[in-house]
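ARCHIVE RECORD
Type: protein–small molecule complex
Small molecule: zinc ion
Source of inputs: curated submission
Record status: active
Notes field left blank by submitter.
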Amino acid sequence: MMCPTCNSTQACKNGYRKGVQAYRCKRCRRQFLESYQKPRYSDATKQRCLELYFGGMGVKAIERATHIHHTTVLHWIRQVDLNALGLELLLEPKLVPNRSQSTEHPYLSSERWLRF
Ligand SMILES: [Zn+2]
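STRUCTURE (tokenized, with ligand):
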């Protein structure tokens, strides 16, 4: 476990708090819970992934390039304002995929969504 305060990996288990594994850092003595360790990415990282995606990169390729799981990237893509995306499609109608070939939601079948 990595300490969220000093990033030391020298943390030992320290019992449970409300059913969640608790840890104590050996370096800074701070106690923390396992739930703090969920991956959290900066806005800059998120923005970079979205730029890659809308630049034509598939989420699996983004995962290989950034080591961020593709479901995380997809989650960010779904957060993007769809009205803004619709505007881009209107500006470049030739990039709209042929939806008759797929029953999947276009934002989810990103491997086919090669260009935006
Ligand atoms: Zn620490």
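CURATOR ANNOTATION: The pocket of zinc ion is lined by residues 3, 5-6, 8, 25, 27-28, 30 (CB under 6 Å).
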